[in-house]
Design brief:
Layout lengths: L1 H28 L4 H8 L3 H13 L3 E5 L13 E5 L1 H7 L4 H14 L3 H29 L5 H11 L4 E6 L10 E6 L5 H6 L2 H14 L4 E4 L8 E6 L9 H27 L6
Length: 274
């Protein structure tokens, strides 16, 4: 009986390990079909469906209709499985509540309203500017055609599980119109729901690093399965070099932060600190 119990425990542990692999694969690659997961993990689709059933029951993943960007093909969209907020929390060790409270305090201390929004924006830009220093080295070292991939690798090292893929203008397009930078994980997704300035500042830095305008197509903070940013292959509106732009972000951030602090001091002058 003891051997039987040990065998059952070993089987349960193995099942849990495989389920964790399934969930991790969805985290790294974004919303996935059963076929995608089976191919990546070397499992049968029947085995994957069984693990997905358990993960759905545990509120770790949820089924969704696959989103299609651009021209829609014929046939019914495939069902994909995406991580729930609970599932992301299992991989996240960020102190969301503390961070959200801190941003609320910054907004309120700056006087609320537009001044509060400006203070949060200044903070968001300062935060991303520090990351941009590391990313710029990787991007500038890459060939122009490989810079989006270089940025994706740098983001992945910071836990964003980023990938790239070609993006066409439609079914009739022969050449890709650009690229999509896909971040399958966002450590600050819950906070960005309340403070979209975090997403906006990140997109600004992407634009500066890559030397072109970019467009957000989707964000995890707004309920999408992946943060997706479109980067045109043949930009019509070029910006200056990344080395100049990222330093500009830092400089403007310092000015904005100083202004926000001064505004906060002026707005609270003469008030009872209680």
């Amino acid at each position: 009986m003891k051997n039987v119990g040990a065998a059952q425990e070993e089987q349960t542990t193995g099942e849990r390990s495989t389920r964790n692999r399934v969930a991790r694969s969805i985290l790294d690659h974004g919303p996935s079909t059963t076929a995608d997961l089976a191919e990546r993990l070397g499992l049968t689709q029947a085995a994957v469906r069984r693990h997905l059933d358990h993960l759905v029951a545990e509120n770790i993943v949820e089924p969704r209709e696959q989103r299609v960007y651009g021209a829609r093909t014929r046939g019914r969209p495939a069902k994909v499985f995406a991580l729930t907020d609970c599932g992301r929390d299992a991989f996240d060790q960020a102190y969301d509540q503390i961070a959200a409270d801190a941003l609320r305090w910054i907004a309120q201390s700056a006087g609320g309203g537009e001044m509060g929004d400006a203070a949060v924006t200044a903070f968001a830009r300062a935060r991303v500017a520090k990351q941009a220093d590391r990313y710029r080295t990787a991007v500038d070292a890459a060939e122009p055609a490989q810079r989006t991939q270089a940025l994706a690798r740098a983001l992945s090292e910071d836990g964003y599980a980023a990938t790239t893929r070609s993006a066409s203008a439609g079914a009739a397009a022969r050449e890709p119109a650009g690229e999509q930078l896909c971040q399958h994980h966002c450590p600050v997704a819950h906070i960005a729901e309340e403070f979209p300035q975090l997403c906006e500042a990140e997109a600004e830095v992407f634009s500066h690093l890559l030397g072109t305008h970019v467009q957000r197509l989707a964000t995890i903070a707004h309920g999408d399965g992946v943060c997706t940013t479109y980067i045109p292959r043949h930009p019509q509106h070029q910006q200056v070099s990344s080395a100049v732009d990222t330093s500009t972000v830092e400089t403007s951030t310092a000015v904005n932060t100083t202004t926000a602090v001064n505004n906060a001091s002026a707005s609270t002058a003469g008030r009872n600190p209680a």
